[in-house]
Amino acid sequence: LLQCLSFLLIALKEPLDLHWLHKVLLSVSLVIVMLGIAVVSLCWTAEWEAVRLLLQATAPFLHLAAVVALTMISWLVFQRYHRAQRSGHLIIGALWTVTVMVFISPLFIYSPCISYMLPPKPALVAHRGAPMLAPENTMMSFRRSVACHVTAFETDVQLSKDMVPFLMHDSGKGFLHRTTNVDAVFPNRTYNSSSDITWEELQMLNAGDWFVKTDPFWSVSLLSEQEKTVARNQTVTSLSELLELSKERNISLIFDLKYDRHGNCNDIAKVIQKSVCLCVLFWFFLQIWWLHEGHRECVKKYYPGFHQVYPDQKTLRNDNGSWLNMKYSTLSAEEISDLRSRNVKVNLWVVNEPWLFSLLWCSGVSSVTTNSCHILKDMSQPDWHLTPHVYKIIWITADLVSLLLMFIFFLLQR
To answer: Which CATH architecture has domain 123-376?
Structure first.
C-alpha cells in the first residue's frame, strides 16, 4: 500500500517527502517481489497452483491485514491531502476507491474453511513410509509410519532381473545412485534399469546411509543415535516384506508398478502372486489399491478384489470407478465436493504442510499421501475453521472500526 501511495504521488507530481530509509526499504521490497515472481514463473511454474491454494487458506487473514495496513496508511494520505495544492481530490478519491475495494473484498473471498460443516479428518497415506524419519522405502521407514496410524502404505515397485518385486522410487539410468551405495559395491557396473540387477545383488546394497549423510528433509536431528545407527544399516526392501508388515498391522498398500519389460498378462499376474503367501491371499485382495494403468485390465481379470484407483477424472468416469488419486493442486474445492457427493473417494498427493492439510480437510478429501505423517497425525482440527455467520461479523466489525479510525485521522490532520 505504501508503494502504491508512492507511485500515485509520483504520477500526480507531488513530492514524496519520504525518509531515506523508507525509500531504501521500498526499493528493496519492490526488487524482492519482482525477483520472486520471476523465479517462480521461470523455475517453478507449477507452484503457482500452490499460491492459489495458499491464498484460499489465508484470504480472510489477508483481508484483515489489508484493513489494518490501509488504516495506518490513511494517516499519511490525509496528511498529503491537506498539503496538496493541485491534486488533493485525486489523492482522496484514490484512497476511497481502494478502501471500498478492500472493505467489500470478503464478498468475493472463497475458502472451504468458511463453512457450516467441517468434514471428517482425512486419512493419512504414508508416502514411501515416513521419509522424514527414516530412509524412504525401507522397512524402518514403514515401521515408523505405523505409529502415525496411517490407513495405507504408498510405494513404488520394480522387478529385478530374476523377477523379484522390490521397492524403489527412482527408475531408469542411474536409478540406484541416489538411495544406495551401488557405486561402492559394484564400481565397474552400470545399471540402467531394474532388469539389470538380480535380487541377490540388490540385497548386498546399503539403502540407509545416504539418508543420514544427506539429511534430505533436515530432520535427522530428530533421530536418536540408536535410530541413526538403525537407519544407516537399512537394505533394499522386497514387496513381500512390506506385505507381511501390512498384514500384521492391517494397513492397506498402494503402489505404482514400474515395469520396463514387455510381458503379457499372465506374467504380471504371476509376479504379483509370487509375492503373496497363500495364507494371506484373501486379505491381500481386500487391502491393495491398484494404481498402474498399463496392466489394469489384467489385474481386474486375475485379482477382482483389488481397489482400482484412477489418476484422473476422465479415466475414472470411463471405467465407472470410485477412487481417485491426484496431485493436491489439480482439483478445486468445488470439484472435491462434487466427487465426494457422488461417493468417490479422493486421495491427494503429496501433502506435507499443516496449512495445506487443513485446507484439504475443509474441502472434504478422503485421504492424503504425505511425507510428514508424524506431524499431521497430531492435528485434531484444521488450523482454522469459521462459520459464514461468524466470519461476516468479524469482517464487518473490522471494516467499521477501520472507518471510524480513518475519520478520526482525517479530523486530526486538519
So the answer is: Alpha-Beta Barrel (3.20)
